[in-house]
Amino acid sequence: MFLAIDIGNSTMKLAIYKADKLINYLVRNPKSFNPNMLDNSKPSAAAISSVVPSDTKKISQSIGEHFKISPYIIHQESKLNINIDYDNPASLGIDRICSAEGAVKLSNDLPGNDNRKGILVIDFGTATTINFIGGKNTFSGGIILPGFRLMVNALSRNTAQLPEITIQNYSTFIGKNTKAAIASGIINSTISLIEKTMENLWMEGVGKLTVYATGGNYSFFGPHLSINHTFVEDLVLRGVKAIYERNNVAK
Q1: Burial annotation 212-243 (CB, 10 A radius, 16+ → b, else e)
Q2: Dist. CA 56–CA 124, nearest whole Å
Q3: Which architecture does CATH list for 83-239?
Q4: Which terminus of the chain has a lower count of CB atoms within 10 Å, N or C?
Q5: Which fold, 2-73?
Q6: What positions carry a catalytic annotation?
Q7: What is the pLDDT of residues 163-219, one digit of tens each?
């Protein structure tokens, strides 16, 4: 069994794989992680992607002591299955790299892969990221904007007397009350940017795109996304696994 972990700013995601088959998927608070929750899986190897170094050290040590394995920590010098075309590769978040890795791994297994001109990866997390992987599996850049909760919190913090917003407040494009208007603004600004990104790539001659979506806020946006896409809950964790294999097979 292989354990993949992604430690983000808000939550920690864990997946157990047997070969390439997802056996278990968990979302937890990294501050309350206890390796006992994985006793039924008994992983023999593990890898961690993290944007929170303090949590990385604690969780890696906890897993190592409990299962007698040494988790591989993905870092900027890790060997990748993708190429990076970015002004400053060191500034590219590990989570974005892992989601791209997961998408490439899945896309390479699809029939008709030779006709694909690129991959678009949309991660609806704390921030929403839209990343483009072009020819020769090259990460070519992307777009970052606030996620659902960040937008809600920004409005609530800076505007007096605004109500709490949930996805249930969205009804029509033109909101008939304040809650509906805010929900529409948040959802449709994000959806419109994604569709504009697709349009721009098409105009630039990219052609056929494979689109993957992931992230904890997908439920807010996914139902309103008109473009053909595949939701993969464990996309980042599949990327963690792919990077682990790239760095360990060569040893």
Answers
A1: bbbbbbbebbeeebeeebebbbbbbbbbbbbb
A2: 22
A3: 2-Layer Sandwich (3.30)
A4: C
A5: Nucleotidyltransferase; domain 5 (3.30.420)
A6: 95
A7: 677 778 888 899 888 888 888 999 999 999 999 999 999 888 887 899 999 999 999
